[in-house]
Write a structure and sequence with these properties.
Strand content: 15-25%
Order of helices and strands: EEHEHEEHEEHEHHEEEEHEEEEHHHEHHH
Helix content: 25-40%
Shape: globular
CATH superfamily of the largest domain: Cupin
Number of helices: 13
CATH class of the largest domain: Mainly Beta
Structural class: alpha+beta
Bound molecules: 2-oxoglutaric acid, fe (ii) ion
Distance between the termini: 22 Å
Length: about 400
């Protein structure tokens, strides 16, 4: 297994139907990093949409070596001096875990140094606030600070690759939470995957296979803000409880609802992402959300710019609309075709996300899945009735055929 090469075997096909039903799983596997190949991870976990934990993932990371040190009480803790020196006085996003705001915690911004002062002062006082520094875009704030590297298994990432190259807000985060901080019950943005690595501390996760959350809906179809094992047992929900230790990465598949508790002080790095193995789910979720938008503003259907308005609302509520999605697919397709036709000196096709490369089979699967999803898009009424969308889809589909014959 080449360390920098994301290598799919010839046996991998796109959109394998799930052969494992999450309801049949007894326990989430815990595997040593690199004990299975990238290709096995792709077909067994990403394509089957099944969680897994990898151990020993962050040994080489700069943040694991330097962000933690032994404090005056002889315990491991944040290395405040190091963090101050290397990161500086930046603004960071923080939530107050004791305050609910709609369906999440109350959010605000703080100066990083102010947060570090809060962190150090906690030990002396009992009723101090529980402030969780989360969704911090440190990597995009400091692109040249190489404090970690995306594990190989999670490196086929169309979402962040696109957003980084286009200089838009990405989905790469740092989380720093005191013991007792937590993240309410949710599923991830766009139905994306997430991976999360603890570089310090322990988290407890409760994960529900897709669909199980429906048993928790109230009469209006709303899901609870907060769950626990008692509620899940009462409602007969299938769920998994996971204790994630330091140096372990969890893979959270598409559409699995979860709640997360920091059972000790914890630092984690996480990404949301998608690629050829879940792109169909992203499209379904986007088009389902579009249907909801259309239903919501049905009484304005005669308005001149109704369609534009729907796209604007979709972008605001879902974080992405049809234009963004098409733009992303066009970008990934163009990048993949370029890589295939202009091979690098090692005869591997260069593509860069954290400097990983893909083998030919990977490009083949990627382009096939783009073609598949574009075919689904062409069935959508919004796309069918719009010449510009339709032409862009046709063009995308045609271009995927350029690759036919290059790989047998
Ligand atoms: O660690 C947390 O508090 C939440 C992480 C999470 O929700 C995720 O990685 O998807
Ligand atoms: Fe999440």
């Amino acid at each position: 297994m080449g360390k920098n090469l994301l290598e799919l075997n010839q046996t991998v096909t796109n959109f394998k139907q799930s052969v494992i039903n999450p309801k049949d799983i007894v326990e989430i596997s815990r595997l040593p990093n690199e004990s299975i190949s990238y290709s096995e991870f792709y077909s067994n976990y990403m394509q089957n949409n099944i969680p897994v934990i990898f151990t020993n993932v962050s040994n080489e990371w700069e943040c694991r070596r330097n962000w933690i040190a032994i404090n005056l009480e002889n315990k491991y803790d944040l290395n405040i001096d190091y963090l101050k020196q290397h990161i500086g006085r930046v603004r960071v996003p923080v939530v107050d875990c004791s305050k609910k705001y709609f369906n999440s915690h109350e959010k605000f911004e703080m100066d990083f140094f102010e947060y570090l002062e809060y962190w150090s002062s906690r030990t002396n006082s009992l009723n101090i606030k529980c402030l969780y520094l989360k969704d911090w875009h440190l990597k995009s704030q400091m692109p040249y600070y190489n404090f970690y590297r995306t594990p190989e298994y999670f490196a086929s990432d169309w979402l962040n690759q696109y957003l980084i190259d286009k200089e838009k807000d990405d989905y790469r985060f740092v989380y720093i939470g005191p013991q007792g901080s937590w993240t309410p019950f949710h599923s991830d943005v766009f139905q994306s995957y997430s991976w999360s690595t603890n570089i310090f501390g322990m988290k407890k996760w409760i994960l529900l296979p897709p669909g199980e959350e429906l048993k928790l809906q109230d009469g209006l179809g709303n899901l609870p803000f907060e769950i626990d094992e008692n509620l899940l047992t009462q409602r007969n929900c299938k769920y998994f409880t996971i204790i994630q230790n330091e140096n372990e990465a969890i893979f959270v598949p598409s559409g699995w609802y979860h709640q997360v508790w920091n059972i000790t002080d914890t630092i984690s790095i996480n990404h949301n992402w998608f690629n050829s193995s879940n792109i169909e789910k992203i499209w379904f979720s986007l088009s389902e959300n579009m249907k909801k938008v259309i239903k919501e503003i049905q009484d304005c259907v005669t308005m001149d710019d109704f369609k534009e308005h729907c796209q604007l609302m979709l972008q605001a509520s879902f974080g992405m609309n049809y234009f963004d999605f098409l733009d992303l697919l066009e970008y990934i397709e163009k990048k993949s075709l370029n890589a295939v036709f202009f091979r690098d000196e090692n005869n591997h096709n260069a593509i860069t996300f954290d400097s990983y490369k893909l083998n030919s089979q990977h490009f083949y699967i990627d382009l096939r899945s783009i073609r598949h999803v574009v075919k689904l898009m062409k069935l959508d009424p919004i796309i069918r009735e719009d010449m510009e969308f339709l032409n862009r889809c046709l063009h995308l589909e045609n271009e995927t055929h350029l690759f036919d014959g290059v790989v047998e």
